[in-house]
Amino acid sequence: MLLRTFGGSFGIAAVGLVLGYIYGGGKGLALAAILAVLEVSLSFDNAVVNATVLVRMSPFWQKIFLTVGVAIAVFGMRLVFPLLIVGITASLTPVEAIRLALDKGDPAKHGTYGYLLHQAHPAIAAFGGMFLLMLFLDFIFEEREITWLSWIERPLARIGKLDQLSVVIALGALAVSAYTLGKHADTAQPDRISTILVSGVLGIATYLLVNSLGEFFDQDEDEDGDGDSDADDLQAKLEKNKTMHVVGKAAFFLFLYLEVLDASFSFDGVVGAFAITSDPIIIAIGLGIGAMFIRSLTVYLVKKGTLAEYVYLEHGALYAIGALAVLLLITIEYEVPEVVTGLIGVAFIGAALVSSIIRNRRADAEGDPAPERAPAAV
């Protein structure tokens, strides 16, 4: 199963490294490899979080995630997105943005592609930070049977019964970030505060829209199946909750939600890659290879039923998301090394994994089997 799951990733890696060599010689190959390893090492939490969403999707939509989703992640986020951001912020046509990107240039030099992308970082960080913060807040305020850090999760779940509390806190965090971190005087960005506010509100709105549409169509499909007896209907709902598969329009919007989530994770990586090279082609190749391996790792976690076996992994991944959201907001003003972001994610997931193992051993000793989730086939 390991070869079947990761075979495509190794194939893409080989093709990508060859293209890196053809494009930039030995240096291009080396830089692409470094970026690929960096992407994989810093994005394990991304794979775990993606797996918590992917496990709810049918085998068909899981395949879409590995095909269309990969194209969006590699070409859309790693290549087209930076070009789009530079074009919008610098009022350039697509042709001019591509020409500027191919000219490369020093990111510290005014007017270069890397410099313009760096100038757009406050808006990118505000959007991604708010999207991820909303995801974390909705998780932490939700009442659940299994809790990891019960001393904090249970009180927050009770508080979370207040309607739209996540939105209120996210908007408050955005306002504080904009008027503190965004207050720094920058002649190149005179409207920095308003840019951060608008981008953050768009991040919140995107989360609410995609999440709400998915839930709406999921409920709509439940209603289409009405007509059975109450007992049959209850049994059907229990079976659905067991498999956690969604189909149709609900699955489509869940797929969109997953893509936006993946994009939010990749924002800092795309911008941070310019610390290694300013060549957008090499960046796209290297980060694309890494993104493919993260996708394969996501599927592997789903197929192995890892989330069912280690029940606190989801908690650890969501806490890592909360930390990443805060770090993204901090990067509006301050530089945060990529390794710090990666280590925080690994620390949360590692702690959750250890806690899960201890829980499973304790349950085995007491003869109380841990609750199971049915793994999804791919």
Walk me through the structure.
The protein is an all-alpha fold and 378 residues long. It has one domain (2-366). It has 15 helices and no strands. It has helices spanning 2-42, 44-54, 59-89, 94-102, 113-119, 121-140, 150-159, 165-180, 192-224, 230-243, 248-272, 280-303, 306-309, 313-330, 338-366. The longest helix is centred in the first third of the chain and has 41 residues, at 2-42. The radius of gyration is 22 Å and the shape is globular. The termini are close together. The model is unreliable at 227-243 and 372-378 (pLDDT under 50).
Give a topology summary:
Elements: H1 2-42, H2 44-54, H3 59-89, H4 94-102, H5 113-119, H6 121-140, H7 150-159, H8 165-180, H9 192-224, H10 230-243, H11 248-272, H12 280-303, H13 306-309, H14 313-330, H15 338-366
